[in-house]
Fold this protein.
Amino acid sequence: MTCDVCGKEGTHQRYITRSYGKGESLLVIEDVPVIYCPHCGERYMTPQTLDQIERIKRSPENLATKRLVTVAVFK
């Protein structure tokens, strides 16, 4: 794949975990595909990925499962 930022070949897909909101409205989305360029270091998501994230954020009760997680505050 070609990097959308620097135009060089060699980008690849990685999977990350992203969190949105905080407190009672915290939503964690795992295995989010991100395009990574080893040449310029840029990381970005495709429009399709961003659309899917917005869809999940609009209806987390239908598309997510509740799990108990440990949360630490960096101080």
